[in-house]
Amino acid sequence: MPEAAPIPPPVRQDPYPGVRNALMYLCYDLLWVVVALLLAPWWILQCLWKRSFRRMVAERLTLGLARLGTPQAGRPRVLVHGVSVGEIMASRSLVAELSPTCEVVVSASTNTGMEVARRLYPKLEVIRFPLDPSPVIRRFLRRIQPEHVILMELEVWPNFLKWSNRCGAPIAIVNGRITERSLRNYLRFHRSLPQFLRVTLFAAQDEANARRFVQLLDDDRRVVVTGNIKADGLQVGPLPQDPAQAEVQHWVAAGPDQNVLVAGSTHGQEELLVFQAFQAASPGCRVILVPRHPERAPEVIEALAALGVRAQRLTRLRSGAERLDPTEPLIVDTVGEIGRFYGLATLVFVGGSLIPHGGQNMLEPAARGKPVLYGPHTDNFLQETALLEEVGAAIRVRDAADLEHQIRFLLGDPLARERMSQAGIQVALAQRGATRRSVQALESRLGLPQHASSPE
């Protein structure tokens, strides 16, 4: 998309002064107070019963958040925020590019996002992203003192945007995407909150998302197309046989003639639907179910038990509480290991798609050279599905019955599986380079220090 000249400067001050906006934000803060009062009994009970919930609430209210030291001269402090696992995983290549010249602080909202961030970035400051009432946001920004803010995909909270402006920290949306449905919703309120002109840069994944951002802003000067940085962080082709992969392979324990069918990032009732399709299409296969939220593992096991099927949990196998039996389905109740299980699959089904959830990341298994299937509901991954389907690297199924049919077809046609495998690898390779383009946009638009490999 051509850029209009001149490029607007970084937004370092509040672009919406005046009484009207002050009243609007006052009403927004009062709404937080009302919601807090209504939910207080439930929150208190959850805090009394669940230590993890109590810790999450304290972190989101910034209680106990330590003040970071003053940023070093010449190494600006950059806050990189991702909501959950997908965004944190996508941030890997970006954080690696920024770290040589910037002090990077990583934040996440969910428990699983925090867990993955702490594992990926053991040497960086990893913190919980706060709730959005003004007092909480102001305390958060005083403690962290970010000089630049990078939000992965489209995570916008009104008070966070406002107070970042007032603290002089320009904001960028990186790997940006926005669905048609979200665009319609935002257009209803774009003159009120969250006020997108507070954002300096929208680095969009593709032209379609860029056009939506331009429509939202009514201004193309803040929008650039940089590509999907998730592709830069993907392992392409077979995984190396390191000790961690060997350990996962031990728990999969598939026989030489046993198909390994993996369902990744599943939601709701998908586990039952997919399990039944797997078993019907390939009796005796090794079934691996990876719920999007690992805490749902007991729920999945109970649902399978109602069908008369006993399932195993990965954590219990590792602890020695269960014996390994490759004839039973394996429930992966850990975070961040899905890629290793994809690497051992004969076929992969990507969840969040048989139900109207919007899909999950289907590029990851395709990049590993695995034939990929998913359901009809992929509104959150329109670019990825278009790329994969165009070259025949993935198959979209209508429902569970069609899933069973397509699995039978692929298991009976090794050449078709190989064509899908090679096509997926080529798609992943073709998408690389988005991280470097994003960093160059951040350098020119936000004023980040130029990386040594960047053109003068």
Helix segment tally: 19
The main β sheet shows up as: 7 strands, parallel
Termini separation: 23 Å
Determine Rg (CA atoms, Å): 23 Å
Average of the residue pLDDT scores: 92
Total number of distinct structural domains: 2
Give the helix proportion (percent range).
40-55%
Find the CATH superfamily of the largest domain.
Glycogen Phosphorylase B
Order of the strands making up the biggest sheet: 3-2-1-4-5-6-7
CATH topology of the largest domain: Rossmann fold
Could you characterize the architecture of this molecule?
There is one protein chain. This protein has 456 residues and is of the alpha/beta class. It folds into two domains: 19-23 and 65-227 and 433-445, 3-Deoxy-D-manno-octulosonic-acid transferase, N-terminal domain (Rossmann fold); 243-430, 3-Layer(aba) Sandwich (Rossmann fold). Helix content is 45%, strand content 13%. It is built from 19 helices and 14 strands. It has helices at residues 19-49, 51-60, 85-90, 92-98, 111-120, 134-144, 158-166, 180-189, 207-217, 243-252, 270-281, 297-306, 314-319, 338-342, 363-367, 382-390, 400-411, 414-430, 434-445, and strands at residues 77-82, 103-108, 125-128, 148-152, 171-176, 201-204, 223-225, 260-266, 286-291, 312-313, 330-331, 347-350, 372-374, 394-396. The strands form two sheets. It has a seven-stranded parallel β-sheet with strand order 3-2-1-4-5-6-7, with helices on both faces. It has a seven-stranded parallel β-sheet with strand order 10-11-9-8-12-13-14, sandwiched between helices. Helix 1 (19-49) runs antiparallel to helix 2 (51-60) and helix 11 packs parallel to helix 17. The mean pLDDT is 92.
